[in-house]
Amino acid sequence: MPGKLKAKIVAGRHLPVMDRASDLTDAFVEVKFGNTTFKTDVFPKSLNPQWNSEWFKFEVDDEDLQDEPLQITVLDHDTYSANDAIGKVYIDIDPLLCTEAASVISGWFPIYDTIHGIRGEINVLVKVELFNDLNRFRQSSCGVKFFCTTSIPRGYRAAMVHGFVEELVVNEDPEYQWIDRIRTPRASNEARQRLISLMSGELQRKIGLKVLEMGGNAVVGYLQCFDLEGESGLVVRAIGTACTLEKHSSGSLVNTHTHPNTAPASNACNSPSKDGKESPLAHGCRSTHNSPVHSACSSQRLSQNFSVSVPTLIFTGMGSGGSAGKEAGPLKTLLRQQTQTALEQREFPFFTLTSFPPGFLVHVGGVVSARSVKLLDRIHNPDEPETRDAWWEEIRQEIKSHAKALGCHAVVGYSENTSICEEVCILSASGTATILNPRYMREGCLDIGSTDHRFDDPSPPSCGFCHIPYDELNMPFPAQLTYCYNCRRQKVPDVLFTTIDLPAEAAVTGKGCLIQARLCRLKKKAQGEVNATAISNLLPFMEYELHTQLMNKLKLRSMNALFGLHIQISVGENMLLGLASATGVYLTALPAPGGIQIAGKTSGDLNNEQHIQSIQKRINDTIAKNKELYQINPPELTEEGVGSPIPEPRQRSRLFRSHSESSDEVSELDLSHGKKDAFVLEIDDTDAVEDIHSLLIDASPPTGFYTCNTETMPGIYNWTTAVQMFTSVRVLRLSNANLSNQSLNKIFTDLCENLLKSFYFKLRSNIPCCLCHLNFTVAVPEEELIQVSVTAVAMTFDKDQTQERFITKGGNETEEQLQFPLELCADSSSTNTQTSSKFSGVPENTIVSSRAASVDYGSFADRCSTWLELLRLKAHTIRRGSVKTSRRTQSLAHSVSSLENCSPLTEGRPRSLRSSRSFGGSSVTMVKMTPLSFLPGTRIIKYLGIINMFFIRETTSLREEGGVSGFLHSFIAEVFAMVRAHVAALGGNAVVSYSMKDCVLMENPNKNQAQCLINVSGDAVICVRETDQEPMTSMTNIGQSCTADGAT
Amino acid sequence: MAVELDVFVGNTTIMDEEVYQLWLDGYTVNDAVKVRMAGGVLDECEANQDVLLSDTMDQYRTFQMCERLLQSPAKLANQLLFQIPPHRQTMLIERYYAFDDSFVREVLGKKLSKGTKKDLDDIGAKTGVTLKSCRRQFDNFKRVFKVVEELKGPLVENIRQHFLLSDKLARDYAAIVFFANNRFETGKKKLQYLTFQDFAFCAGQLINNWTVGAVDNMVEDMDVDLDKEFLQELKELKVLITDKDLLDQHKSLVCTALRGKTKAFTEMEANFKNLSRGLVNIATKLTNTKDVRDFFIDLVEKFIEPCRSDRWTSADVKLYLTHYTNSAHILDSFKHQAVWDRYMGVIKSCIFKMYHD
Question: Which range is the signal sequence, renumbered to this chain (chain B) (predicted)?
Answer without folding.
Answer: none
